[in-house]
């Protein structure tokens, strides 16, 4: 038996013991699982535990599971400059963005960015990476050159066309076809779903019209209201939409552009009820991620401070983690964890990463256990988030407000929205 981090005392300390390959953590309900303190900040421990939490009464719980060594993370800025807004292409920190709210890693490692404030789609070069697993050296030496794909800065309107002749209005979430040839964009203020042929940069509209509405139908006959999140099925045949303003999850058959509502009770029926189809309710769902087998959709239910999941075979919606309506920073088994304005989700195997916007950090839900942990960002003692721009390892790396997150071969890329920068989180 070893004493993992030292048995600390006091009302807000974690008692963390390691018994061979197993660990026991004794925590208060309002605390997070963490390995210790540095400079008055919480150092987040990656904790692999069973979903079983045993209540000991008096607000104290015993969490049982397999403890793993705390893994240092490094947060670095790879493109853009803090609060220096613009629409300038160029290498790394010489490039400029304005309020980027969407980010997506393509199969070849290209990073696409919805540069929301500029009404543009941009990209960061992958330096020729293939879909094969790259070496860490390759990942950390990407050719960080920012290039425009479509749209024109500060010319918010609707127009199909090629490259800079096309127009978007507040583009946010994106999805890419499995072959990497077509990029789909949630054009939120145009209430449309657009697509870009990446070979020609031709932009066209596949569904929706400029006026907010909620009707199902084919192509431009269907209506959306502020669609923000997209996910595509592994076979590339179905596009899923987080229709935020309608509190609904929709799907588009890409062969016919037919739009169908899968779940959610509509704009006037926000809520957090689990259930099947329209019996389930949401409050501003903003982001989607789909499991590798295409069977489960994960949803950032932003205004509810929840992470939800939907089984696509039945349209059954359930809550995976969080407390409806109550913000917080607590880690632990799903029902005991708290989020604060989670705005983006991305999936990597059995790890669901969450950009927990108002907490200024990146969280992770272990899908095999349901346990929530914090992987990047920091909080003061007492759970107050630290928002900032600093790069660094462990608790020294801060975010202003992580507005979108994507993953490529285990490395996270984050659109730090009000900071106007693109950040990287490496493990």
Automatic annotation (TrEMBL):
Pfam families per the UniProt record, alphabetical: Phytase-like
Top-rank taxon, per record: Bacteria
Domain annotation Phytase-like: ranges: 160-242
Designated name of the protein: Phytase-like domain-containing protein
């Amino acid at each position: 038996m070893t004493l993992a981090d030292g048995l600390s005392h006091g009302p807000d300390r974690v008692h963390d013991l390691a018994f061979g390959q197993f660990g026991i953590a004794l925590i208060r309900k309002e605390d997070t699982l963490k390995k210790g303190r540095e400079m008055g900040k919480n150092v987040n421990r990656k904790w692999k535990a069973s979903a079983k939490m045993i209540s000991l009464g008096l607000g104290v719980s015993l969490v049982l599971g397999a403890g793993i060594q705390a893994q240092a993370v490094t947060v670095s800025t790879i493109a853009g400059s803090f609060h220096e807004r613009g629409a300038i292409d160029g290498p790394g920190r010489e490039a400029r963005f304005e309020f980027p709210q969407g980010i997506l890693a393509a199969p070849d490692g290209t990073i696409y960015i919805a540069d929301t404030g500029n009404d543009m789609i941009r990209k960061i070069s992958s330096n020729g990476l293939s879909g094969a697993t790259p070496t860490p050296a390759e990942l950390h030496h990407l050719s960080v050159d920012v290039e425009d794909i479509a749209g024109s800065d500060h010319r918010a309107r609707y127009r199909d066309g090629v490259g800079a002749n096309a127009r978007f209005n507040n583009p946010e979430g994106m999805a890419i076809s499995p072959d990497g040839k077509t990029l789909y964009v949630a054009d939120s203020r145009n209430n449309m779903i657009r697509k870009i042929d990446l070979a020609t940069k031709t932009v066209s509209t596949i569904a929706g019209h400029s006026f907010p509405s909620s009707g199902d139908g084919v192509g431009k006959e269907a209506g959306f209201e502020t669609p923000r999140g997209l996910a595509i099925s592994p076979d590339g045949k179905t596009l899923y939409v987080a229709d935020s303003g309608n509190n609904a999850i929709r799907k588009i058959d890409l062969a016919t552009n037919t739009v169908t509502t899968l779940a959610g009770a509509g704009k006037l029926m926000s809520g957090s009820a689990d259930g099947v189809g329209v019996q389930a309710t949401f409050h501003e769902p903003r982001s989607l991620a789909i499991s590798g087998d295409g069977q489960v959709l994960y949803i950032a239910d932003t205004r509810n401070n929840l992470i939800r999941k939907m089984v696509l075979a039945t349209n059954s919606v359930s809550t995976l983690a969080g407390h409806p309506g109550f913000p917080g920073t607590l880690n632990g088994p799903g029902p005991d964890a708290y989020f604060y304005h989670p705005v983006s989700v991305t999936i990597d195997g059995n790890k669901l990463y969450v950009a927990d916007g108002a907490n200024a950090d990146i969280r992770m839900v272990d899908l095999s256990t349901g346990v929530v942990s914090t992987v990047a960002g920091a909080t003061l003692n007492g759970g107050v988030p630290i928002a900032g721009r600093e790069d660094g390892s462990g608790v020294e790396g801060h975010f202003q407000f992580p507005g979108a997150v994507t993953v490529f071969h285990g490395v996270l890329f984050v659109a730090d929205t009000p900071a106007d920068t693109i950040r990287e989180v490496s493990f």
